[in-house]
Design brief:
The structure is a single chain. The protein is an all-alpha fold. It is 65% helix and 0% strand. It has helices at 6-13, 17-25, 27-42, 47-53, 58-66, 74-84.
């Protein structure tokens, strides 16, 4: 079975103007999701393990990693970050 890299798939989809518009609207959410996934995998943890250590559900971690988790709280990001050995950083531009 042929696999496709996320970056290649994203580059292809960004050629579609409608997709690009929607992606740009959610860019920050996707960046957070990508970083959480990277940190979790670097730590060698499953979603279930991260959830247990952060005192939440695997479903909540899954939503966070999907990039579609609306209204995520800074407190939740701090709990997840603490398990992963990082602190969230928020800025306005």
């Amino acid at each position: 079975m042929k696999t496709t890299k996320f970056e290649d798939l994203l580059a292809e989809n960004l050629k579609d103007k409608e997709f690009k518009k929607e992606y740009e609207a959610l860019k920050e959410e996707f960046e957070v999701a990508k970083e959480i996934i990277r940190l979790r995998l670097t730590a060698g943890m499953t979603q279930k393990e991260l959830a247990r250590k952060a005192h939440t559900s695997q479903a909540a971690i899954s939503r966070l990693e999907s990039g579609n988790y609306r209204n995520v709280s800074l407190a939740f990001l701090r709990r997840v970050g603490a398990v992963l050995g990082v602190k969230p950083h928020v800025s306005f531009q």
